[in-house]
What we know:
By secondary structure, the chain is α+β, with helices and mostly antiparallel strands.
Amino acid sequence: MPELPEVETTRRGIRGALRGRHIVELVVREPRLRWRIDASLPALLTGRIVRDVRRRAKYLLIDLEGGTLILHLGMSGSLRVLAPATTLLPHDHYDLLVDSGRCLRFNDPRRFGSLHWVAGDASEHPLLAGLGPEPLESGFDADYLVARARRRKVAIKQFLMDQKIVVGVGNIYASEALHRAGINPRRAAGRIARPRYEALVGAIRQVLGEAIRQGGTTLRDYVNADGTPGYFRQKLYVYERTGKPCRRCHTPIRQIVQGQRSTYFCPRCQT
Length: 271
Ligand SMILES: [Zn+2]
């Protein structure tokens, strides 16, 4: 599933091809995504200029004059920039053509992706309202986490994966960041001291930052005509390493289930 680093890498990959361009046409081949693409959308978009391409959580925001397109890649979606005449693949559901003669093509075998238009301020759209801060931006720090965690008994792993607390820290990155910060994933969020939250914020920024940098090297997978989306080959310390030696202390990595998701941790390094 595309996580925050893949979405950010996609944003960087498509932004240059879209920004400052006028939309020529939206071609919808399959409107039945997670939510049906509004039939009025093609007529609404034609002729508008693209101001910018931003990201909020795992949503891509294409800012146009008068409103914003909100895209989600779902479980299996990917975007490529290519010539509109490029042979269609199965699951190529829509093309957004711009006046440079190129198009943004969306492919999604499982059709959990989405495409919405919002007039005015996108941050007030129901998909985006109520989301927590971005982990790589300044509002996310130890003071913030300490305040939100006060008296909370929920396990820190699930606390981190709550999009109302912070966005984009998925299962892989939560496990990896907790290992780097030396925090047991079962520990109650309200029973973690401030210095440990400082270490955790640093660890989250580090694992996400590394994945984004790694993504830069596979960027062409997202923009080439024949590329299939690549997932990042980041060096993982605990994720899916059950029974293998901890890279720090050689204790076998343990796997538990929290909130129907697997958690991986080192019982010695993480207390
Ligand atoms: Zn260890």
